[in-house]
Design goal:
This protein has 388 residues and is α+β, with helices and mostly antiparallel strands. It has 14 helices and eight strands. Keywords: Disulfide bond, Glycoprotein, Hydrolase, Signal.
């Protein structure tokens, strides 16, 4: 079993091969002044699409009876706690001092997608980031170890973080990408398709995203304590490769990348520009409890150098803005944690800043301006009616 788990982890972590380890040590001249942090939720149970590919549906339904489909498992809750520990170590008083040990409403803003697993991940992570200090302990029991921390979420149909499910233009481009890719990227996997049709009853030529769906099913089963089915074991290496290619379809074109990550990048740029202009900016730690597609999209529009494998459960990506105490110059650093509790955070590099740990902010602006997408423009492009 361990050898198959290792293969799964290899596929998930291959995207950080060019990264350098980072620590929470604060460099004397560099002050962290803003961080946009996107995490993938913790381990979950299978969703309905994944369940439809399983030949053990009744067993999986029984195992998911407590948490429900797409529910955060106990393993996922522990993963979420590790996300919070990472945030405290890196951004708290013992790290880069962006937030206090006390929860202060003006220091942090948390946004989740309107999914139970991302909300629960944020709640558990916050319990690790902000164990209540004496001033915020509110009773003699649970109030000594936990305090409520607010988050925001908007309806899925109006959320730019859910671009792949609510944006009609993106879905139209994805349909084209799937049709083209089956005779291009997925040609080396032609031999898998007849086998998978027999094993799952689905025709993967109609939707190559099924490669990732099946791979996610196997990962969910492992998280539930089940062994990988015998039929899947010899196919797993190739299936992992195909799943990665399926994930990459979400970022196949310039416009797909812009729709996927442009709003987040634009929001980061606006706040960074306000800081550069000396304007007051609250909530300098911005946390987004979201999905693998959100991590990938922000990395793409930020032009991070990486082969972009599928982010694992509990993966964290951050854009960090620094100000030099001596010169006042602003710079940006991309940081990636492959899986909270299992790995070490790495400093990545942007295209055009391959030799620099800190990329000059003005240079970063020029390199990425083609992907900026104001939120109102996202709604217009995607034909989403909203009052947000």
């Amino acid at each position: 079993m361990l050898q198959y788990l290792a293969l799964v982890c290899f596929v998930a972590h291959a995207g950080v091969s060019h990264a350098l380890p980072t620590s929470n040590e604060v460099l004397p001249d560099q002050e962290l002044v803003l961080a946009f942090v996107v995490n993938r939720h913790g381990e979950r149970t299978p969703d309905a699409d994944e369940l439809s590919l399983s030949n053990e549906q009744e067993k999986l339904k029984n195992l998911t009876a407590l948490d429900g489909l797409e529910g955060l498992t106990n393993v996922g809750k522990r993963r979420a706690y590790q996300i919070g520990k990472f945030l405290r170590q890196r951004y708290g008083c013992q790290g880069r001092k962006l937030v206090s040990n006390l929860y202060l409403y003006h220091e942090i803003a948390i946004r989740c997608t309107d999914k139970d697993r991302t909300k629960m991940t944020a709640q558990v992570a916050m319990s690790a980031l902000y164990p209540p200090e004496l001033e915020q302990q509110w009773d003699e029991g649970v109030g000594k170890v936990w305090q409520p921390i607010p988050y925001t979420a908007v309806p899925l149909k109006e959320d730019y973080l859910r671009y792949y499910s609510n944006c009609e233009k993106f879905k139209a481009m994805m349909a084209i990408a799937k049709q083209e890719s089956i005779n291009e990227e997925f040609k080396p996997f032609d031999h898998l398709i007849p086998k998978l049709k027999v094993l799952t009853g689905r025709n993967f030529t109609e939707d190559p995203l099924l490669f990732e769906t099946l791979f996610d099913l196997l990962r969910s089963q492992v998280g539930l304590g089940l062994d990988i089915p015998e039929w899947a074991k010899p196919l797993l290496p190739k299936l992992g490769e195909a799943a990665r290619l399926a994930y990459r379809l979400y970022f196949r074109t310039h416009e797909m990348k812009k729709i996927g990550g442009g709003v987040l990048l634009n929001n980061f740029m606006n706040l960074a520009s306000d800081i550069a202009a000396g304007k007051p900016v609250k909530n300098r730690l911005r946390l987004f409890s979201a999905h693998d597609f959100n991590i990938g999209a922000l990395m793409e529009v930020s032009k991070v150098k990486s082969d972009q494998s599928i982010p694992e459960y509990g993966a964290v990506f951050a854009l960090e803005l620094y100000k030099s105490r001596s010169s006042g110059e602003l710079s940006v650093m991309p940081v990636y944690l492959p899986q909270a509790g299992e790995s070490t955070a790495k400093v990545l590099h942007f295209e055009g800043c391959e030799l620099d740990e800190y990329c000059n902010f003005s240079k970063f602006q020029v390199k990425t301006k083609e992907y900026l997408l104001p939120e109102k423009e996202f709604y217009s492009i995607c034909n989403i009616k909203t009052e947000l």
